[in-house]
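Researcher: Hi, I'm a grad student and pretty new to this. My advisor asked me to get structures for two proteins we've been looking at. I'm not sure of the right format, so I'll just paste the first sequence and hope you can take it from there.
Model: That works fine. Here's the first sequence with its structure tokens right after it:
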Amino acid sequence: MVLTRFAYRPLLRRSSHLLVGQCILRWPVLLGMVILPLLASFPGWPHRFSLALPPLAGPVGCLMLAYACWLFWRSQLDVLSGNAQRKPWPGGVYQRIRHPLYAALWLAALAQFLLVQDGLAGSGGVLALLFSYGRSVRREEGLLLQWLGDAYRQYMQHTGRLWPRGLAR
């Protein structure tokens, strides 16, 4: 997902509109989802945090991570496409989910826990998101409400924040 963000860098520089998720890809998420798992892969990492998860945890984690990467990529593509200048929600995944980038990060954090199978490094992504998610979403939605007003309020009524509205019913 970090590589996807770098791939879109030229478009991000040219873009003048509010980018979804521009606040969350910062140090806590980088530390918890990239640096901590990398450190855990080196010899000498304390094994006292190791977890014995069921054998299906790995394949389920791979599927979750693949979907998270697709959702992250698609959210960035939808925002940075030419449609974003014509209307606030260009379609795609934004037709059903207000914050697919955050949904992708949560899925990736859960996948990290299943794949790393270490209590400290595996939960680093979840802990980082717990620390920064609420603040980032409130700030972002506040900016969108200021920018778009009632149109965004109406959009909020028809979409779920992290998963499609009505999916959990």
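Researcher: Oh nice, that was easy. Here's the second one.
Model: And its structure:
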Amino acid sequence: MTKHPLHRDGAAAAQGNAGPPVTEEQPAVPFWQVLVLGLATLLFGVAVLTWPAATLRTIGVLVGIWLLVVGAARIVGAFLSGRAIGRQVLSAAIGIIFVVGGVACLRNVAKGVLVLAFIIAFAWILSGVAELTIALQAPTAARAWLIILAIVSIAIGFVFLFWPGLSLTTIVIMTGISGVIIGIGEAAFAFQLRRLAAAP
């Protein structure tokens, strides 16, 4: 009587039908990095709005400090996040540009309203492009948040670029409001990332 190893065939069939192992989606960006960016931007916006009589030099210093903080956060996040090499390079490159811009503002390079407006616009647009690039590779649950933040940031940057006859008062108001809006959005996205990471 011939014995048939049915149990082995069944196990092999079960393994064949199981398919590839399911891997968890990695967060698009680290929770702590997004939270630092959001809080720094929010505090920056609040500081600008609560300083209505600020001079050009004062606004330049505030912008410089903000760029240094968010630039440093992006650089550190690039080396500690464990993301794909492309995202790490992008984060580090933008962080370095922000740090250079922050140092320039602190050294009083932005001596004119238009120069300061260009620096702020460039920072918003660059941030938006970075978020949009990351969104294209991000998990589905986080993609919508990143795309919204990217579009808002880029739109604000172009407003700074193409607003005719910007005055210092207009820059102060626009910078403060945009900082508060983007900061709240980034902080909210950070906690959304944390909830997604904690979800089973």
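Researcher: Is there anything I should tell my advisor about the second?
Model: You could mention this: DSSP finds seven helices and no strands in the chain.
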